[in-house]
Write a structure and sequence with these properties.
about 130 residues, mainly alpha, 5 helices
Length: about 130
């Protein structure tokens, strides 16, 4: 291989080792704290807090399932490279949880728009019963 290719490969391995580890630690900690704060009793009646709680939980699952293989890839130990079903399951879980979390944030934005509307009918649409469905 060319020296620039070796250098790029080395840089990517180092990023997978250390940056992914930082993302795993801080992402897990942040989402766990979000879940703890948003699951408090007085926030359970707020539709937006419920949406953000589920979004944080899904993001936590995405980090716990998605990042460890990247960390292991830094040491060439990634099981998703050798086990076909692990690769497919990993991809499905990561992409579906990440997509659902993003869509829930979009729904929370719509909920905030509804609650800040000047029309009473729109404000009434933002309630905990609509979030449950």
């Amino acid at each position: 291989m060319a020296p620039s290719t070796d250098s790029l490969k080395y840089t990517l391995e180092q990023l997978n080792r250390y940056l992914a580890l930082a993302i795993f630690i801080f992402g897990s900690l942040g989402n766990i704290l979000n879940c703890l704060v948003l699951s408090q009793r007085k926030l359970r009646s707020h539709p937006c807090a419920s949406i953000f709680l589920v979004s944080s939980f899904l993001s936590l699952i995405c980090i716990l399932i998605g990042v460890p293989p990247r960390i292991l890839a830094g040491w060439n130990l990634d099981p998703t490279n050798t086990i076909n079903i692990a690769c497919k399951l990993h991809a499905f879980i990561v992409f579906s949880t990440r997509t659902m979390a993003i869509w829930l944030i979009a729904l929370a934005t719509i909920d905030r728009w509804l609650i800040s509307s000047t029309q009473v009918h729109r404000r009434q649409m933002s309630n905990i019963e609509n979030v449950k469905y």
